[in-house]
Amino acid sequence: MADNENCKNSSSRKGHEQNEQRAKKSFNYCSHLFVLVVFAVGLVGGTLIGIYAYHGNKNDNSCLNQFSNGAGADTGGSVPHYTQIKTTPGGPILSTAPRTNTGQCPNKNPKDNTPYESSLFAPLTVKEMTEVSEILWLGKFITTVNHAPRSLEESFILYMYLFPPRKEDAIEYLYNNGSKPGRYAKVHIQRGAEHVPDIMEYKVGPLGHPGANVTPLTKPGEIHFNSRPYDGVEVKVLDDLLHNDMKVLETLMRESFDNATFPNELYIFYYNGPPRMTTEGRETRFVIGFPALEELDVINLLPLSGTVHNPGNNVSDWHPHSYYYLNQGPYSTVQGLVDAYKNNTIRKLRLPAGYRNTLRRKLFPEKDNSLPLREYADHPGARSYMPKGPRFSISGTNVKWMDWSFHISGGQLKGPALFDIRFKGNRIAYELAVNDIALEYAMDASGQNSIIYMDATYGIMGGVSRTKILNDVDCPSYAVVFNTSYWDSFSQKAFDMESICVFEADGQEALWRHVSPSFAGGMRNRHLIVRVPVVVGNYDYTLEFQFYLDGKIYTMAKASGYIQASFWDEHNPHASGDKTRDAFGYRVFEYQTGPIHDHMFGFKVDMDVIDSNNSLEVVHWKAGNILDALRTQSNITQVPPYFIYNQTRYVEYETMQEETGFRLNYDHQKMFVVVNENKKNKWGVKRGYQIAPLATGAQSLPDVHPAMKALSFTKYHVTVTKRKEEEPYLSSIYDINRMNNPKGYLDLMLNNESIVNEDLVNWVTVGFLHVPSSEDIPMTARVESGFLLKPFNFFDKTATFDMPQYYEEQGSTNVEHEPAFDACVEPNKEY
């Protein structure tokens, strides 16, 4: 098992005398396996290697053959490998026949023809969404169908996605042969046609059956019309409203912004949320920008901003106000700003002629042809493939792999979800789901300061976001791709998009390993991945679930894409003499600074360790004197004499009695374990799963910040509550637009209910702080965070010993390797 280079480097650091001694010892140590190698490579080659190893030299290679499978020997181009053919009382018989190329690898499609909608948790299909819209149209719940709404005075569908079955009904069906629950849709309707406009939510179904019901989930007026998310209809109205003001600003914009005019060379960015603290009004801040990259270009925003007062749906009452130019203002009208500009009473900006025409070339993410290629960059990189075809299967949206099984689900607002996750026949979790992504920006810029986004408000898998899987970038070419559907509010139609891929990955590392003087063993880390790349505005997120052979689940959230920048003002009066940075970030481009912000990902983790009767045990990791440690388990009064000093580490166990939220504090570290009090392993220990947040940022805003109720899930890394059907998510998509009176935030769930032997939900939040640097231009290279669900006394031993693995015992024929395969050519994907 020893690595050749390690052997060389190790021996080169020691003297010649040490090398000779070690060479002689190694010769005796490796002698049994050495004989095998001699026969494999030929008598002459074996004799030369034996002489070389026995006499030793400066680059001691005597460990070259230790636990070797022969792959390091020179065989004239044919690389032998050991294949376990069968096991006899004397040990396995090995074959050293070279691999032969058998042509193209098997290419069986692991996905059968079972329709999505037959699965209990499958996302809604286009067909089902169309059925729902027709039901609502016929029932006169909406005023438009199959075409774009013409005004905000119409009633139309904002969002639509699966309404999951009640957990009790799903468990009864999945485990107790109960009746299959029907499929339902949850629909958000913007009711502009009502006398008092509002937003209503409905449950529609069962789908695919005559006589589907439309059941209100909210009361009229409960969700204020001003709490709605932005949509294409409102943006068009805003554009039309500001058209005249943009004409008044034409001279200022031409002189300041490289002869650009609206709407030809400039666009208006409206999504600088939130629209207002209260629902009594709606205030939309806007910023002018160059659309150099795309319509939603948030790098090239310019120092011209304003606000539109736009409550309700009577657009005749809407009006713009509070104009700023280079942070100078506010001017109550656009004419006031223009007069100050003409009278030279304010600072002015003049971008260089031709500047805007260089932006796309500088920021478009393509190879820079002015730079030489790196050495061998024109050669294809390493890649993986399946030499005997897929080892997983998919029926509808149910996935099975290596004793794992789960159902893929999700919706356009909250994002991807997995249901009924089982390992080796045991239920591990009922639901593992993305719930929201929160971002909070800080910058010294009018129209952009104190921006807060809650991405579920706009749709993580639909809405203003779109997604497309980039083959061989997001996922390997052999991955199975799922389409999911989303409802487009502007066209009032449903669309399919490639959104989820599933594949087995080769970690090319050890899941576990050990090398001792008498044996060597290990298992290669292969795992199944469910990956969901999404685009929410300027940011690209990859949401990922990884399933491991030992029972671990690693949930990851990764970010890439374009940053949202603010304009770099060389003469900013708030900046110091150092013009390269300020209190809110660094200058990262010609006229851009990178505002500091964070990305906080909120997950719903409904663990079911064996069943739904669980508790949360907190293991406190402590340090103190010996008596402190021992007194956690007995009333000892004297330190036993065998302790060599009076300080130690120890753990203290606490079963949480009531709902609570935890913030990670590395001065007082904790481990969170969901346990089943009624199920024990072989050693009498409660079976459990640990929830382990990995590298993560923390919320730094104080609780008194106006947004912290709506964003309360970002305050905690792990929160435990008693599960309730009426508490399906950790945030509401409307609360960011009604911060003075939020109604669906996580803190509301913490009401001191007992959580011992109950059906629990753990709400897990992880993320990272982002201080953009020049390396984020043009593209942010991947940053990530995540958490681990890890067996914790769940099994009696490491749960991988029902799999072939690597094992070789010194001086014995007791050898095992992974299943052999014949070399083959990676096939073209045909499914």
Automatic annotation (TrEMBL):
One GO molecular-function entry: quinone binding
In residue numbers, the region (Disordered) covers: 1-20, 78-116
Q: Where is the active site?
A: D455 (proton acceptor), Y539 (schiff-base intermediate with substrate)
Enumerate the transmembrane spans. 33-54
Q: Name one GO cellular component term.
A: plasma membrane
The entry's free-text remark on the cofactor is: Contains 1 topaquinone per subunit.
The UniProt similarity line reads:
Belongs to the copper/topaquinone oxidase family.
What name does the UniProt record give this protein? Amine oxidase
Species name for this entry?
Potamilus streckersoni
